[in-house]
Fold this protein.
Amino acid sequence: MLVLILALALLVIATAAGLLGSLAGLGGGVILTPVLVLFFGIPFGDAVGASAVSVLATSTTSGAAYVHERLTDLRIGNFLQIATVPGALIGATAIVLVAHTSLVPWLLIALGVVLISTVPGSLAMRHEEHPPEVAGDALSQRLHLEGNYYDRFHQRVVHYRGQNSVRALEVMFAAGIVAGLFGIGSGVLKVLALDRALRLPMKASTATSNFMIGVTAAATVGVLFAGGLVVPMLAAPIAIGTTAGAYVGSRLLPTLANRLVRWLFVVILVVLSLETIVRGALSL
Amino acid sequence: MTTPSASETALPPDPTFPPAAYERVARLLRAGVLGFLVFAGAGMVSQLILYPHDTVGMALSTSPVAEYRSFGLFVHDLALGRPDSFIILGIYVMLGVTIGRVVLATFDFYRGGERALGTISLAVVVLLLVGLFIVGPFVH
């Protein structure tokens, strides 16, 4: 296939991935890695490298809008990065070492199972627009892990306090490893940590996740660069497409209801979980 | 009816991250997006115009990224106008902006007297640099 045709196709697909990614707090890489491998026959390692760059693009583009809107919680986002970055370094190192081994399908199946196991918990909160405000745990109180944003949908200021911060750190570390392994932002796990553990409102969760996935991706890309797994003519159209999609998505999110964002997130979560398991099984 | 933006609405103040700090980060990110689009876009379009008959297999087999750990070679290819190198420059811009936003947060935390969070952010910066300059080359 000509690079020209691949580049045009990837521009279109990546735009859709960037739009969905910025709305749901995902990097879009979780959509792009399988597309590159399954539909275009790109080797897994090169697909991971290109996807990681697209995550960087989604995060930078969405982040510019969400930080301006103050939907992103800079305090909580920066705090949790201490768990995701070491995880990403471990994951990226592992994928450079095992990219050409038979372990990859089993890793995919394991990831799919982990993701789908989180669906019931997310569904249980489907009617919740804003989490109840309670006193945070000791670490959250000490570090003032709380914030507020102006909700344009409800036209009021929403205040929240972080809870279960240690649990959130644990999930973030796992998210970092998964991000490094698969070249994805691991936004699914990050949103789960922010939404389910810290109990942030859904829009603050997706916006803060979008901000964080870039830092995780930076750790991943640094290692993948050195490993020779970033192919410029794969990475460029994907990253440019996701930038365009993320720009549109970041204009939409502030105007949506938290419940709608959660539903969108759950639907994407189910589809991606099943797709990841099937992809792993087919590769065995 | 127009909906107010966050800046037009009186949100409770955060001494460490006042509105100006948020705006500073937002500006940095916007600059990163613009820089990436200019460099990577120019590189991609040039590559497609100069080498319209390249196949995907050729693109995969001739990737120069691992060699670009050599700063001299990278600058040399930029000077020659090699499209690949401009795409990589765009990606480096985004990487730099991402590390830069953590550096900004580190300053904001220390300036706000939040030493614990400042030290955490500083550790994240160090880890990112370790990944880029130590772990990556070591794995390679």
